[in-house]
Amino acid sequence: MKIIITGSLGNISGPLTEQLVKAGHDVTVVSSSANKKADIEKFGASAAIGSVEDIEFLTKTFTGADVVYSMVPQQATSSDYKAFIRKIGQNYAVALKAAGIKNVVNLSSIGAHLSSGTGPIAGMHDAEEILNKLDGVNIKHLRPASFYYNFNNNIGMIKHMGILGGNYPADARIVLVHPKDIADVAFEEITAPFSGTTIRYIASDEKTAGEVTAILGTAIGKPELPWIQFTDEQSVAGMQQAGLSEDVSKNLTEMGTAVRSAILWEDYDKHQPVLSKRKFEDFANEFAENYNK
Predict the structure, then answer these.
(1) Which residues contact residue 47 at a Cβ distance below 8 angstroms, ignoring those fewer than 6 apart?
(2) Which of the residues 60, 80, 204, 224 has an alpha carbon 20 to 30 A from that of 279?
(3) pLDDT of residue 225
(4) Which DSSP symbol is given to 74?
(5) 266 lies in a domain?
(6) Which residues make Cβ contacts (< 8 Å) with residue 292, sequence separation at least 6?
(7) Range of the domain at 115
(8) What CATH number has the domain bearing residue 70?
(9) pTM for this entry
């Protein structure tokens, strides 16, 4: 099959591309960076260098494909994060229609059943709705849990403050996933026939914030590492200090409130998948390697 992968060679798209090429598919990887062209070609895939904000580029790239894997890139400096996500979703919809694409596997998020109160995930909800309006297109929305790798963003906090924390308590439940488990599921869905508009949740493990802290602390030789709950205001200020825009900081803090209230997991709990194979303890070893670099 001819398959288009967005997301360059990121934590999901990279392993996914590797699997698809090994299985004999004709894969084109979309990347905004010309520097990635050689790396993409080393995988045995073709590179399409351009921006997901360029509808003409997307249309040209998508044309002739059997399946498109769509995802929205992160945008740490956006002045309106949700609007950015909606805009990329709209760009995909226009390009998919113009290119005559019939099958789309779309990377969304756990919590995308809600239209508000979840920070950037509400933008994913809107992107799902935009894609769902396409006539005659089969769409599989993947809704992964919170990425293990997000904790790599807290290495500075641990090193400089001696804590791990967020705007929810230590006993707050967190549903988690390894990006490679997402890649495995995306490979399954892209290569198997599907019809209509359907949703699949992806999760690898479930922990509390306190359990996560203990596991990561032990892995880096700090078994007494504490989880500290921040106020929402402290959360916003801390993220801005780390270089995120005010809007992105407020959105990510709102996502934390959705963890605190547990609304993020409501629909997931109604459609719980079998947990994937890569457990949080396995990731802790990867985390320790990054921490000790």
Answers:
(1) 28, 29, 31, 36, 37, 40, 41
(2) 224
(3) 98
(4) P
(5) no
(6) 220
(7) 2-147+177-202
(8) 3.40.50.720
(9) 0.96
* Rama region for 117: left / alpha / beta (φ>0; ψ in -120 to 50; rest): left
Helix-helix angle 280-291:209-219, to 10 degrees: 50
User: How many domains in the chain?
Assistant: 1
DSSP state of 225: P
Give me the pLDDT at residue 77, please: 87
Q: Contact, 177 vs 151, CB < 8 A? A: no
Inside any domain, residue 161: no
Residue 200: pLDDT over 90: yes
Tens digit of each residue's pLDDT (9 = 90 or more) over 251-274 = 999 999 999 999 999 999 999 999
Provide the 10 A C-beta neighbour count for residue 27.
Answer: 25
The string of pLDDT tens digits covering residues 61-71 is 999 999 999 99
Residue 108 is assigned to a structural domain of this protein: yes
Q: Which two tokens stand for residue 229?
A: 């709950």
Domain contains 245: no
